[in-house]
Structures are given as structure tokens and as C-alpha cells.
Amino acid sequence: MLTHLDNQGRANMVDVTTKAITERAATACALVHMQPQTLDMIQQGGHPKGDVFAVARIAGIQAAKRTHELIPLCHPLMLTSVKVHLEPRPPQHVYITATCKLAGQTGVEMEALTAVSVAALTLYDMCKAVDKDMQIEQVHLLDKQGGKSGHYVRAEGKTAPGGQP
């Protein structure tokens, strides 16, 4: 059984030494709610700080690669792919997804969740001067593949506004 507790009940990193190396992937999402004029400004390229989506995408990718430095007891992983996508959903939402992949002994759920969280926080940081009421909502895992526990897909009806996960 995998646990973060040792025989004495102390927190420690899970030993994955004997686990098989398998292809693993995870996709997470987040929703950023903002004023319609803030989304218009971003989409029209009128933000004084430049391409907000490009900066948020890079921040999400960097965060995924450094998850082990941010979340205690996470394994440092050699990710083979990190994709962060920001989709405007007018009039006032940005839907963010991140998919992380690797061939390894442990999953990449935390990396995908960290990527969408940091991308959302970067959007907030870049736009807070014009919209302090932004909200980051619905950060969750959508899909996980590989490993001993198999394939997980979030149940229907548990998606962000506007439809698909």
C-alpha cells in the first residue's frame, strides 16, 4: 500500500522503487472569472504588459516542471510533455487546461494541477491592476491515465461553465 506515512506514522516520500515504469498522463483544469472588459482587453492584445495568455502558458509549464519544489513529498519527475491551453469563454471566463505526460513510476496529477493553478494565478497577477474582483474557480483533475490504478475520467456533469471539461 502506498502512503506518505512510515512505520512510526511520520510523513515521508512514497518509495516507488519497485513500481513499473509506465506511460502516464494527467489533465487538470481551472476557470478564471473576470469582468467582460478585462477579457476583451486580453483578447484584443491591449494589455500594457503584453501577451497575457503567452506569459500564463509559460508560467504553467514552468510550474509543472518544478512541482516537487512546491508540494512537499512530491517526486521530482522528468516530464516528457507539458501542454497548457488557455481558452477564452466570453463574456467573462478563461478556461485553462494542462496535460502532463511521462514514462515513469509515479503519476503526474500534481504537476497538471500545479500548472493550471499557476497559469490562473499568473492571469490574476497580470490583470489585477484593472480587475481585482477576478476569481479562480473549479481547479480539478479531469483525466488520469497509466499506473496501477488505471484510467480515471471525471464524472459527467462536473465540468466548467460552457460545457466540456
UniProtKB/TrEMBL annotation:
GO function term, MF aspect, one: cyclic pyranopterin monophosphate synthase activity
Domain of life: Bacteria
Enzyme class: lyase
Domain Molybdopterin cofactor biosynthesis C (MoaC), chain residue ranges per copy: 13-147
Biological process terms in GO annotation: Mo-molybdopterin cofactor biosynthetic process
Gene3D superfamilies membership: Molybdopterin cofactor biosynthesis C (MoaC) domain
One protein family per Pfam: MoaC
This protein's name: Cyclic pyranopterin monophosphate synthase
Originating species: Thiopseudomonas denitrificans
